[in-house]
Design brief:
207 residues, alpha+beta, disordered N terminus, globular, hpI Integrase, Chain A
Length: 207
């Protein structure tokens, strides 16, 4: 399977009905709970896989309004920086509740724990690998989302950006700040369609 490397290959936001149908297909994978939970966490955080696997339960706080995940590494820069991820809890993001339920159920340190190859038990104090994260997500059938290619972690990151623009009305500046992007190129890609629609007097684009 060829993994896309350019922004234009990333899938667009398809809407929550399609996303929930996609997530339901995790039940058909070899490790359904991991496939489901890893997909939700990767989407909600918008992290690269090398960043996501380091997240610990004690970094996550939440109340009725929001979830915050503190000091998540941003690894693309030459020197590692950090970002605090803020996720709004409301009916525009049903997976936020799934994330909270998962965190509440954890009795181990990492959101993406390492597991024993044979018993599938959690290995204390160790997180999974980026390769395992990639495999669990790509094992879900994505026929509803994209053709001839399974989903991958960076694809979920791209759809998160599209969702923040479509559902949260994020501006270029807000996207850059949320993802800690140093340059505007990526944010421009996700906001240009909405900005063009506004210039044409379209208030709400279909999904």
């Amino acid at each position: 399977m060829n993994r896309p490397k350019v922004t234009e290959d990333l899938p667009e936001w398809p809407g929550w009905k399609t996303m929930n149908c996609y997530l339901a297909k995790a039940d058909e994978t070899p490790y359904p709970e991991d496939s489901k939970n890893y997909t939700v966490i990767t989407f909600e955080t918008g992290c690269r896989r090398a960043e996501a696997i380091t997240i610990r339960k004690d970094q996550v706080s939440y109340n009725e309004e929001a979830i915050i995940i503190r000091r998540v590494p941003v690894l693309k820069h030459r020197a590692t920086t950090w970002r605090d991820i803020v996720i709004l809890r409301d009916d525009k993001d049903p997976w936020a509740e799934t994330l909270v339920e998962y965190v509440e159920s954890l009795d181990h340190e990492y959101l993406y724990p390492a597991r024993n190859k044979f018993s599938r038990g959690v290995i204390p104090g160790k997180h999974t690998t980026g390769r395992t994260l990639y495999n669990r997500i790509s094992e879900i059938d994505t026929e509803l989302l994209i053709e001839e290619r399974n989903m991958w972690p960076h694809g979920l990151r791209g759809m998160r950006a599209s969702m923040l623009v479509s559902e949260r009305d994020f501006s270029l500046q807000m996207l850059m700040k949320w993802f800690e992007w140093a340059r505007p190129d990526m944010a421009i890609h996700y906001t240009k369609t909405r900005d063009l629609a506004r210039a044409m007097g379209i208030k709400k684009l279909p999904t």
